């Protein structure tokens, strides 16, 4: 039996036409660029619907009963006037594509973590300040767009490191640093138009091109230093904010390997966390030997070893380098993270002709202010490579 598809876009409808009920086996309906302000309850009874396109209307809310569309696989309500999403979206278990871009949303429901079939999520052009860590449980997500959320300061590493993520866009946000843990299957990244970012983790090198540089004037952001880890690159005196969760970083070369037992424990617990997230198990949370351990597990690895044939997850301590390209006119800084001293020396041996090291020091011992500024000393972002 052939499915029914209705193309009723650009027809100046003010309401969803009840004529929809006249069509049997209706699976797809296009109602783009009309003046629809409400999704009627009767529409939720058409459970054969798999595809609804309502972009460019006047919707101010989605009905809580939207979960009744149990076969829905595609929902586009972009460019409307939504200020929040119902928690019941998490009950659309067949949903594969969700587009809520171009609205006035400030939060995503944590209940979206149940959307295990979700593959494409577009939340661009909203007002998000943060993303719920539970989004990392959408294990089939392969395309994520968070661009043009001008107040978004941080992209959780656990989300950037989703196992099947292939495409990530975070242009024109307010990111203070780029996540140094990316999915191994990533093949497209647009994340560099963030004016406070003043270094690029080496894991992005294969995506890096000149037109990704910040071409606009740097906009420094003052943030609290408490709980954050900074180093100062001594050639340009740039202060670099390292990933949240960093406890200590070691120079290369160092006299000995400094693998910590704490990080080894996190590696072991991470396997358990894949099957039962710690934040859902209060008893396990209480049994952990250190109160911050559950946070480190839930947040996931903060970086991956830069050595390609290793890529080991890094959690709180690691070997760290700041490098520049040899023979390049660009003043762009790249950073490298390694799990052991041996991995660092191996990478140096393979890349010594292309990169050279810059000296740095931990900077929390020479700054007494409670507030710090990201984006300072960064007037060279427009240089060509």
TrEMBL record:
Organism this protein belongs to: Drosophila virilis (Fruit fly)
Disulfide bond in keyword set: no
Keywords attached to this entry: Leucine-rich repeat, Repeat
Residue span, Disease resistance R13L4/SHOC-2-like LRR domain: 42-144
Signal peptide limits: none
Protein name as annotated: Disease resistance R13L4/SHOC-2-like LRR domain-containing protein
GO cellular component annotations of the record: cytoplasm
Composition bias, Acidic residues: 364-373
Cross-referenced PANTHER family: PTHR48051, RAS SUPPRESSOR PROTEIN 1
Disordered as annotated region, ranges: 362-385
Gene3D superfamilies: Ribonuclease Inhibitor
Pfam families on file: LRR_14 (PF23598)
The UniProt record lists the keyword Methyltransferase: no
Basic and acidic residues bias locations: 374-385
